[in-house]
Amino acid sequence: MRIHRVLVCAAIALTAGGCTRVIDAVTPQDCAAEAGVAGCGPSPWPTTSHGANSDPWLVSHRTVITEMRPRVLVLNFQNGVSVDGARATAQRQVDAVAEGSRYHGYSDPNAPPFIRYEIAKVVNLTDPTVPSGWLNPSSTKLPTTATGEFDVAALFSAQFAAMYGFTDPKDATRALPLCELFEQGAINEVWIQDGELGPPRRAPLSLERKQSYDGTETAVPGTFAPNAGGGGSGSSITCSVTVRFAHLDGVRGPGCDLEVRGWEIESMWAALPSLRADALAFLNRDFDTRFGVPFDSWESICDETGSTPCIAYPSPTSARATDRNGTPWTISPFLQGCGSTTFPPNATRRGDNNNATTTVNSRCEHFGLRDGQDLNDAYEPYNFTKVAALDQAFPDCGGGWQIYWRQSIPGLGNHAKSFDGSPMKNWWPLLFY
Q1: Spatial separation of the C-alpha atoms in residues 390 and 56, rounded to whole Å
Q2: With contact defined as beta carbons under 8 Å apart, do 42 and 31 qualify?
Q3: Which of 20, 81, 230, 242 could form an S-S bond across to 267 if both were Cys, CB 3.0 to 4.6 Å?
Q4: Distance from C-alpha of 3 to C-alpha of 22, rounded to nearest angstrom
Q5: How many of the other CB atoms lie within 10 Å of CB of 192?
Q6: Is the CB of residue 223 less than 8 Å from the CB of residue 433?
Q7: In the chain, what is the greatest distance between 2 CA atoms, to the nearest angstrom?
Q8: How many whole angstroms separate alpha carbon 196 and alpha carbon 318?
Q9: Contacts of 211 (CB under 8 A, 6+ apart)
Q10: How far apart are CA 241 and CA 59, in angstroms?
Q11: Eight-class DSSP state of 418
Q12: From CA 344, how far away is CA 352, in angstroms rounded?
């Protein structure tokens, strides 16, 4: 048995919430080591007793979770969009995430979705009547700071708690604020539709304040990574569990919201050091150690706009260019992992998601399987034609690549091996650690 230190809320601040009491909670050891013992049978998540993010149960039962149904709260600030309209956009994204969580779904038609979000509530935060002269697509209820930027902390206030309309089961006169909704497992994520095309009023595209873990996957009490979502900082949030936000766009195709939700997958490893080596290899962020070059990833040498090619591939197994200091480099053989949301295996620049003319070798479909020569992962050619059909089903922002990339992530029932030879775990439960 393990004893975990668990924070329990006794009082919530009006702005961002907080917890003041610490108790000991006893949970089973890792079910991977105790298969077949009571409490370690196959199980969905959430369960009746375990539904909150960062619950130690998630860590100890990760190997036996068969399906995740996280609860999402949708906040609709976009004037002119009804509750039904926002719900339809959210459901479209629910379906896209579910498709992406089908491990090797591109080659296995029977692969089940692992993540099926459930919409807990859609809250209408639009203006019943848009004030004269109001030019923003988002309503006057959208919270902003004194400098006009979206104010994440305000969403944790008592004022917004009343708008959410979740009644405290112990006090019918009190509405639960956002921290308590996360801590009690009433919700696991918040999606925000605001209609804003850019800063300053636009809500964060992806924001996660994530519980940090040590090298044994044990939570480090009171320690959080505030930028684990890759698209904004949760430093103003003081909840006792992982808090997750994502943007919801009713104008762009589902591929764009898939991309921003992928940033959390790319960024969360600072809070999960024991699992980082495999992740960096998959994401192509270990080039410095793998190839001995003076950069770790394409993100480090390519500009943010994606307007200029920054990588060339003389052959399917070689890459070359110059770094930001003008120093030329060549990698040959270029035995890469898979890629990232903005750099597919054959990307010549950031966001080069639809490149059908450049073909390179990658191991997306074989990551960790050790099914190639000398028990290494097998490689096979990749270009856009491999994902073209998926791109039609999930358009915009390289949606085909986003789905293919997600379906290549080690998921339910994978037979991959970690870098140290141990069985590769399912990565998807990590999102809610």
Answers
A1: 36
A2: no
A3: 230
A4: 12
A5: 27
A6: no
A7: 70
A8: 41
A9: 53, 54, 219, 220, 223, 224, 241, 242, 271, 433
A10: 14
A11: -
A12: 7
Which residue from 399, 407, 124 is spatially nearest to 282, judged by alpha carbons?
Answer: 407
Q: Which two tokens stand for residue 93?
A: 């994204």
Question: Do residues 61 and 40 touch, judged by C-beta distance below 8 A?
Answer: yes
> In whole angstroms, what is the distance from residue 341 CA to residue 260 CA?
8
- Bridge partner list, 138: 78
Using CB atoms within 10 Å of the CB of residue 14, give its burial: 0 to 12 exposed, 13 to 18 middle, 19+ buried.
Answer: exposed
Question: Tokens for 105?
Answer: 């779904």
Q: How far is residue 227's CA from residue 214's CA, in Å, rounded to a whole number?
A: 17
Check whether the bond before 143 is cis (ω within 30° of 0).
no
329's CB contacts (< 8 A; 6+ apart) are 293, 294, 320, 321, 322, 323
Q: Tokens representing 422?
A: 């141990």
Question: HSE of 48 in the Cβ direction (CA atoms, 13 Å)?
Answer: 0
CA distance 159 to 14: 9
Alpha carbons 293 and 284: distance in angstroms, whole number: 13
* SS3 category, 22: strand
Contact 62, 425 (CB under 8 A): yes
Contacts of 327 (CB under 8 A, 6+ apart): 294
CA 107/CA 111 separation, integer angstroms:
9
For the four alpha carbons of 16, 184, 193 and 80, in that order, the dihedral sign comes to negative
Contact yes or no for 152/236 (Cβ under 8 A): yes
Cβ(188)–Cβ(71) below 8 Å: yes
Helices and strands, number each (H, E), in the chain: 9, 17
Per-residue pLDDT of the chain (433 residues), as tens digits, is 343 444 334 333 333 444 433 333 444 458 877 666 788 999 999 999 999 999 999 999 999 999 999 999 999 999 999 999 999 999 999 999 999 999 999 999 999 999 999 999 999 999 999 999 999 999 999 999 999 999 999 999 999 999 999 999 999 999 999 999 999 999 999 999 999 989 999 999 999 999 999 999 999 999 999 999 988 899 999 999 999 999 999 999 999 999 999 999 999 999 999 999 999 999 999 999 999 999 999 999 999 999 989 999 999 999 998 877 888 999 999 999 999 999 999 999 999 999 999 999 999 999 999 999 999 999 999 999 999 999 999 999 999 999 999 999 999 999 999 999 999 999 999 999 9
Both tokens assigned to 232: 């904004």
Q: Which two tokens stand for residue 84?
A: 């039904």
